[in-house]
Amino acid sequence: MTDETFVSFGEQGAQLTYGSYLRLPQLLDSQHLESDPPAHDELLFITIHQVYELWFKQLLHELTSARDAMLRGVEGGRLWWAQHLMTRAHVIERVLVQQVDVLETMTPQDFLQFRQRLAPASGFQSVQFRELEFLSGAKDAAYLRRFKGITATEQARLDARLAEPTLWDAFVAVLASSGLPAGNDAEVSASMRTVAHDRDTYAVVWALGEALLQHDELAAGWRARHVVMVERMIGSKSGTGGSSGSTYLRSRLPVQYYPLLWDLRSQL
Fold first, then answer.
1. What is the reported pTM?
2. CA 72/CA 204 separation, integer angstroms
3. 3 state DSSP class of 257
């Protein structure tokens, strides 16, 4: 008699296991040290950054779905889903900040044992991180001209993010679908003041605005934590890949995805 709990996959019909489902052999074989002799902390450095990229992938999944739910508007009936996904994104973003603590257990001396082996690779080249910025609203086509070593697939992904609606575009669509003027920045600001003073009527709109602001704040917190970590590791030295290191990172600290939501605080 056939066991109905047996699950098979692949051409050989092998049983699905924890390791095969998660592709653990491939995953755990993805950390290859460049240092020779092997530097002890290079494994930590690789692992942390690979984990970051996995979380970036998840954030893109959640935030893209949140945007699409907002674009459907009030009549689409999925604004609660957008709010739920934004809340999940906030939790992930807090994890991103906390991971810096693990990286900071590495001393500058330990990092210098393998740092030169990283050139010309640089965190500046993270396509997924740039996708997150584009999706959030900080679109910068000039980045594509500064990016070295980009593949055709990566170029297509970034071009698509530049062309598609942002989270802010989706939120403006929510305002419009709620019957509020949203044709320009002045109208959006006035509509947000209306929302702020009548949260009973516009509870979901207010909640989504606050969710975007939280996303903005957590992204700013990660940038701030990251630059301090870099300065702790390499001081004012240039970064790998030809970047200016902490100087560039500090220039990104004032970035705000949603300045109108921040300005609202001054208008209440």
1. 0.89
2. 14
3. coil
